[in-house]
């Protein structure tokens, strides 16, 4: 999987969909600060891609101390942005226990990981986080409007209304497909198995896909409406 991603899939999309980017960025900020009630502290981003969100976070005063990104193309881009990048799968990266304040996965890296590995990873994150530390998972849920359209597009060849609508709010059709589509409840259950017991959720991108880039959408509590959802576990 290391070379299937290309940086332009992400950066071109974000340039052309600035309001969607801003809505998703606001959700990341809300998730890692628990709605502006904590400092993010020592922060690790998993599956950061080109580091574009981390770059935007830095401009807004949030430091991402370490990035884990297995794709050589994307890791190089994140490194060029000045981040400390470990080019590896999260499964292969050890961290000391009680050493991290915030771990976030923006853009569903966990959706490329099988359940067996994910259980081990969440257990490890529980140990690696300091007390009060935060693990934030940001995802397009399978039953959301965007989730349904993306999954439908995998099954339809050629041009269709679905592909037309998707271009308004999703990456190019060549962007690698997320393999595992799990609900927010599925992820919560996996996190509970890993030791977490306190959860919060926020969401954004609640409009129909063709209107999502018209303006920045608000972040609101919950997970049952948005096409972009943050499930946050607190240690
Ligand atoms: C859809 S992209 C999201 C990129 C970026 N965070 C964003 O939101 O634009 C998913 C990312 O997860 C990374 N990824 C996939 N499997 C991973 C794993 N096992 N460990 C860490 N990252 C992984 C991919 O290389 C890719 O950069």
UniProtKB/TrEMBL annotation:
<dbReference type="GO" id="GO:0008757">
    <property type="term" value="F:S-adenosylmethionine-dependent methyltransferase activity"/>
</dbReference>
<feature type="domain" description="Methyltransferase type 11">
    <location>
        <begin position="45"/>
        <end position="136"/>
    </location>
</feature>
<dbReference type="InterPro" id="IPR013216">
    <property type="entry name" value="Methyltransf_11"/>
</dbReference>
<keyword id="KW-0489">Methyltransferase</keyword>
<keyword id="KW-0808">Transferase</keyword>
<dbReference type="Pfam" id="PF08241">
    <property type="entry name" value="Methyltransf_11"/>
</dbReference>
<protein>
    <submittedName>
        <fullName>Methyltransferase type 11</fullName>
    </submittedName>
</protein>
<dbReference type="GO" id="GO:0032259">
    <property type="term" value="P:methylation"/>
</dbReference>
<dbReference type="InterPro" id="IPR029063">
    <property type="entry name" value="SAM-dependent_MTases_sf"/>
</dbReference>
